[in-house]
Amino acid sequence: MKRLLVAAIFGLLQTTALAAEEPPAGDTSKPGDATPNPDKVAPKEEPVKKTEYDKLPLPQLIAKAKSGDPVAQFELASRFNYGRGMPRNTAEALRWLRQAGRNGQEDAARLLAIKFYNGHDVPQDFGEALKWAGVLAEKGDLPAQLMLASMYANGEGGTRDLVRAYMWYAIAAVGAKREGSTEEPRAVQVQAATEARDKLATLLSEVQETEAQRLASDWWMKKHGTSGKAREK
Fold it and tell me: CA 115, CA 111: separation in Å to the nearest integer?
């Protein structure tokens, strides 16, 4: 039995096993290869984060949220979500979290990904968890990249895609510091991404691995403003 260490969701570690089993119909992995089969360790919601509107009176907060302020939208969602100063209301929390997430508020996207992955206070929905993890991953969030890779590897939220899983593990394995961030990526997450990428490579054909590497490189060059033509000179 082959086992693949994958990193956790947003700072929490979980282990995903690659258990030997018959690949599903239409699967492109090689016969006899291990297939992702997660031993789920559900991520937990982080303690509520204070915002600049933490002490703002509710009427003013609602007005700012309705005006499109994503921080106010997240703060209002948090109050509904945790019952801070008002009765808990999951439907309203989700409504404001989605608005904040669509407006680029990353903590809202993170909370949505965790909620839907766990099915905490909401019906479990891997598709929506994948969506919000993808939003953060595209912005360069390493834990979200690990979550996305793990979900692709295990077919959570859609068809299992080992090429996409390798792509995101490869990106996470670089361990790049996010633009504008003073925090270095956690070494344990970078190591987990590296190990997962290398072990996942054993399940791919040479063509698949080359394609996964190309996808990772193309994403990286686009993110850092490096064109293919410039690279060839």
Answer: 6
DSSP annotation of 16? E
Give start and end residues of each alpha helix (H) in the chain.
58-66, 70-82, 90-102, 106-118, 126-138, 142-154, 162-174, 187-201, 206-223, 228-232
Question: Which residues, 6+ apart, have CB-to-CB distance to 32 below 8 Å?
Answer: 20
Rounded to the nearest 10 degrees, what angle do helices 70-82 and 58-66 cross at? Answer: 130
* Strand order through the sheet with 16-20: 2-4, 16-20, 34-38
Please provide the DSSP assignment of 42-108 as one string.
Answer: ---PPPPPP-TTTT--HHHHHHHHHTT-HHHHHHHHHHHHHTSSS---HHHHHHHHHHHHHTT-HHH
Give the Cα separation of 194 and 223 in Å (integer): 20
CA distance 109 to 159: 22
pLDDT (tens, 9 = 90+) of the chain, 233 residues, equals: 233 333 333 333 332 222 222 233 334 443 334 445 433 444 555 556 678 899 999 999 999 999 999 999 999 999 999 999 999 999 999 999 999 999 999 999 999 999 999 998 899 999 999 999 999 999 999 999 999 999 999 999 999 999 999 999 999 999 877 766 667 778 999 999 999 999 999 999 999 999 999 999 999 999 887 765 544 44
Q: Is the pTM of this model over 0.90?
A: no
Please tell me the distance from the alpha carbon of residue 219 to that of residue 225, in angstroms, as a whole number: 10
SS3 of residue 193 by DSSP: helix
AA letter at 33: D
C-alpha 180/C-alpha 150 separation (Å) is 26
